[in-house]
Every structure is written in C-alpha cells, then in structure tokens.
Predict the structure.
Amino acid sequence: MKHRVTNDQVIKAWTEATDYVVSKFTDEGDFYRQHVLNKALFDLLGTVKGKKILDSGCGEGYLSRMLSKKGAIVTGLEPAHGLIQHAIETEKKENLGIEYIEKDLSEWEGKKSTFDIVVSNMVFMDIPDWKPAMRNCINTLKPKGVFVFSISHPCFDIPGKWESEKPHVKVTNYFNEYTIQNYIGPSFHRMLSSYVNFLSENGCYITQMLEPSVPEKAIEKKNLRDRNIPNFLLIKAVKM
C-alpha cells in the first residue's frame, strides 16, 4: 500500500516539534522510555561495552548518550534537523565521542558489515518507507550482529488518535494498513507479520520478543489501558 504521506512530511513534522520533544525528555527519555522501553531495550542488548552501535532514528540523542556512557562506540542517525542539531550541540558539551549523521534512514546506505549492534527505538511505525529503512539497518550489521528495535504494538493499534485514558481498545481493520494521527505527525499501522517476515526475508532470525508493561507504581490514573494492554513490542534479531 502506498501512503499519501511522504517521508519528508513526517520528517518536517518532527523537526517542527523539536522544542516540544526536548522539553519532554530527560537524560533517560520521556515517561514511557524511562519506565518501560529503556529496561526492555537494555535487557535485549545485553553488554554494550566496546560494541560499535548504530542508533537509527536517534532523535535528540538520549539513547545514544546512554549507550555511550555504558562504553559503546555510538553513531546516531536522525533525519529531523532540529532534533539532530540538539544532539550535536549536546555532544559538543558532553564530548562522549558520539558521531551524528543527519540523513533519512530510508535513503542512507551506510558501509556494509560495520556495526555489532543496530538499535532503533520507536521509529519504524513512523516511517512511510519503512522497508528500505529496515533493510539499510540490516545491511550495516556485521554477520551475527544484533538488531533490536521497538515499535508501537501493532496488534492494538486503533484508527484515529490514540487515547490513553481508555481502559481498552477496539481493534478493527487489522489486516489493512492505515494512518494513525499521533501528537507529532502520523504513524502507520501494519500487521505484526509484516515486520517479522521482512526480517526473515532479509537474512535475520528472531531470538526474542518482549511486550513490556508499565510498572504499577508508575501507572497514572489517566493511563488505564496500561494495566491491560502492552503498548509496545520489542524484537531482537540476529543477522545470519
């Protein structure tokens, strides 16, 4: 299915939201990154010290900095100009040795067999041209390299705008691709099998999947669905 929304339109939306994103992020990201995604990501990544890691779709750079502080050799890739500039300016102050590249992941063709690990945190469901983006990630991995990514859980997407205060979701139209209006730009619903099969078709096998929940102590009254539904899916794959 061809989306009317283009990569450039999505990138523009995220650039325009730079100030909003930066205001919501601490050194460990926003609410869901702090309380759900970070632990799950690092559980899948394991030891990162000394590893060459591509943080694809790095945004304002919080995860790149966390990885670097754990001893990884990090390259951050991000197309939204405002976000990558924030990451670059922060690097000038902190001098962690992170290399940042401003480029659309769907168009960027990095050097093959370069990275031990590629991580992509909440990116692919926001990219219209997700297949070349994911393929470019896989191509830059070394043989037996690890690919870890997180996405909004595709089994619980709902058309329209995501409303956190609802304690449940009504899933319809799962088998078709459609656009979801987010607080920043659109996301795109795809079947879970679309991601899994694409990994297999491009020389990767899945070793682990996580569907993390929000810790009870962190659930707010407005986040009722967090008690019942996993909002995120994380996949760990290895390149053959």
User: Anything to note?
Assistant: The helical segments are 7-16, 18-24, 31-45, 62-69, 81-94, 130-139, 192-201. Strands lie at 52-56, 73-78, 99-102, 115-121, 141-152, 160-161, 178-181, 186-189, 204-210, 232-239. The chain has one domain: 7-239. Residues 7-239 form a domain with the Rossmann fold fold (CATH 3.40.50.150).
